[in-house]
């Protein structure tokens, strides 16, 4: 409020000129705080009416109190709405989206930075497209998951999809299956396995075989379809899906968290 009064005084009561002053203040704050850490904020998800495309966005700020402010919450919702309505391909395209006043989404973010005095940024923007997309938002408002399913059918699909999304939230898999694990990670795990075996005094000729065994354990713990289902460890996620609907599987997922 005081900033608004100061801007009006500086602009001699001219509202439009005062708005320009406030916007410039926002740009100055954006520049000054560009390197500041943003460890608080909000993560929102939404799936289209057809259930085939999901969006997840993370709008971050510097402190928790700011993340609770109504203006910040409204801005996060505006970012999500723009993502859904435009199906923007990139974060840059999303931030350039014109709002009802004709100004870009980035302009509105900069304005709120000037008003609040903190760095605000869209730190994540992800899309999942599949035969069936299910979303999950954690209760803290700072974690969201999208999971894409194929070979879907039947009433239980959404419920099972939610279970899988919650599994992703809790267990943080790095890939859908072992085929999705990058070569650098595989090489690192093999080297770690060899070194562990070496320190245990295992023969040098056995190190490769032991490391491969440890790698298989890594796949079981770190890739979604091979993980044990948290609610029923007697089945893997792959088996859970197949039991629900023959051939059903996960095509991709996105896990976005703040903090």
UniProtKB/TrEMBL annotation:
Q: Which UniProt keywords apply?
A: Cytoplasm, Elongation factor, Protein biosynthesis
Output the Gene Ontology cellular-component terms: cytoplasm
- Subcellular compartments: Cytoplasm
SUPFAM superfamilies linked: Elongation factor Ts (EF-Ts), dimerisation domain (SSF54713), UBA-like (SSF46934)
The principal localisation class reads cytoplasm
Query: Highest taxon of the source?
Result: Bacteria
Query: Which InterPro entries does the UniProt record give?
Result: EF-Ts_dimer_sf, Transl_elong_EFTs/EF1B, Transl_elong_EFTs/EF1B_dimer, UBA-like_sf
Every Translation elongation factor EFTs/EF1B dimerisation domain range: 56-259
Q: Extract one GO molecular function annotation from the record.
A: translation elongation factor activity
Which PANTHER family does its entry note? Answer: ELONGATION FACTOR TS, ELONGATION FACTOR TS, MITOCHONDRIAL
By sequence similarity, the record places it as follows: Belongs to the EF-Ts family.
What the protein does comes down to: Associates with the EF-Tu.GDP complex and induces the exchange of GDP to GTP. It remains bound to the aminoacyl-tRNA.EF-Tu.GTP complex up to the GTP hydrolysis stage on the ribosome.
Protein's UniProt name? Elongation factor Ts
Species in which this protein is naturally found: Rufibacter quisquiliarum
Q: Which gene encodes it?
A: tsf
């Amino acid at each position: 409020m005081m900033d608004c009064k100061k801007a009006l005084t500086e602009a001699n009561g001219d509202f439009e000129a005062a708005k320009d002053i406030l916007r410039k203040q926002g740009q100055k704050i954006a520049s000054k705080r560009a390197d500041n850490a943003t460890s608080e904020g909000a993560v929102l998800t939404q799936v289209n009416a057809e259930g085939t495309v999901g969006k997840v966005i993370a709008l971050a700020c510097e402190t928790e109190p700011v993340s609770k402010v109504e203006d910040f919450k409204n801005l996060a919702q505006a970012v999500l709405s723009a993502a859904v309505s435009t199906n923007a391909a990139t974060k840059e395209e999303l931030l350039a989206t014109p709002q009802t006043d004709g100004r870009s989404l980035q302009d509105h973010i900069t304005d709120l930075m000037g008003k609040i005095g903190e760095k605000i940024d869209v730190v994540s923007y992800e899309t999942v497209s599949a035969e069936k997309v299910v979303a999950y938002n954690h209760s803290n408002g700072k974690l969201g998951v999208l999971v894409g399913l194929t070979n879907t059918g039947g009433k239980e699909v959404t419920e099972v999809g939610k279970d899988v999304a919650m599994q992703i939230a809790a267990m943080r898999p790095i890939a859908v299956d072992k085929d999705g694990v990058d070569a650098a990670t595989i090489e690192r795990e093999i080297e770690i396995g060899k070194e562990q075996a070496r320190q245990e005094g295992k023969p040098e000729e056995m190190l490769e075989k032991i490391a491969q065994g440890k790698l298989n354990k890594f796949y079981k713990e770190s890739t979604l379809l091979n993980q044990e289902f948290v609610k029923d460890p007697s089945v893997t996620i792959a088996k859970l899906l197949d039991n629900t609907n023959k051939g059903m599987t996960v095509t991709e997922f996105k896990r976005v968290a703040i903090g």
